[in-house]
Amino acid sequence: MKWCVVLLGLLGLPAQAAFKCEADLQYGLAVNDRYIRVINSSRTLYQINQSKQLIVRGEWVELPPEQQEMLQELADGLHYAVPKVVLLASEGVDLAIGAVDHVYVGLVGSDHESYERLQKALWRVKQKVKTKFIRASDNYYIGPRSLENVDELMDNQLESQIEEALTTSVGGILSAIGGLPAQGDENLEKRMEMLSAKLENMGAEIEKHIAPQANSLRLKAEWFCNEIKRLDGVEEELRRTVPALAPYDLIVTGQANPLK
Question: How many C-beta atoms lie closer than 10 Å to residue 49's C-beta?
């Protein structure tokens, strides 16, 4: 997201190369200890019970041993990975929102007139993530087209709202240094030096406290991306050998991803 890059540049933090995971879900996916459900809108396309029983459109599909092993491998992988990515999405958006809020308050202050609008925009972002990655007791749900970078969970409208609020903070920064300089303003250089020092201190603090968490989340995201790609291979083999599953391509990966 553009504003994230701007903030990193403003704070002097090293920006890592963007991590792009070419993997996504074409349908909704609900997981708990008892079953896995692949959902299109409110309709269950197929269900895996106890990692071994396959039900497609309400009808039990009996599998030979080889396909039964693949079904269990797919189910076990999803049982393990889905709860982790739901938690990962929540941690990621909380960290990103916390960083934006911290920078905004540090530069402008919570009393600035634009701060309330920023809070509303960030709240909308968090709610959007919650509607795509849901945990209710031992039930986990991931909506279709949800396996993206945290930045990409925010659509253009939400991004515009946050950018508008952050842009307003420029006015707060200018106010902090006395507004646009008049010719011959002798105090401008001193105020600019104070602002620069404030930014440097804030950048060091964020790098110390946030960078380790961000790196940890990045490593988890990379692991999950590799795992979901591995499971895509298992699913494709199942779809090839089990006719009832052929119409339903849950996991899509690679540059040819039709959802991208």
Answer: 14
